[in-house]
Amino acid sequence: MCLAVCGKVVKIDGMKAVCDFGGTKREISTMLVEGVKVGDYVLVHAGFAISILNPQEAKETLKTFEMMYKVNE
User: Fold this and answer.
1) For the whole model, what pTM was predicted?
2) If exposure means fewest CB atoms within 10 Å of the residue's CB, which of 3, 9, 16, 42 is most exposed?
């Protein structure tokens, strides 16, 4: 089973980007996805952006993760 996490791109430097995952920022690779821009929401697996999400899809995904986190508190 694979798990990809949704994050917001806050900085880009070549093929690397900094992604914000609910307040935690991590460097990721954008080499697998063309056209990633600051402000985009991306799905990240194993440190690589694997797709760009539209903003509505990203908000729904983040809301689902937040609900799962609250259930497990």
Assistant:
1) 0.85
2) 3
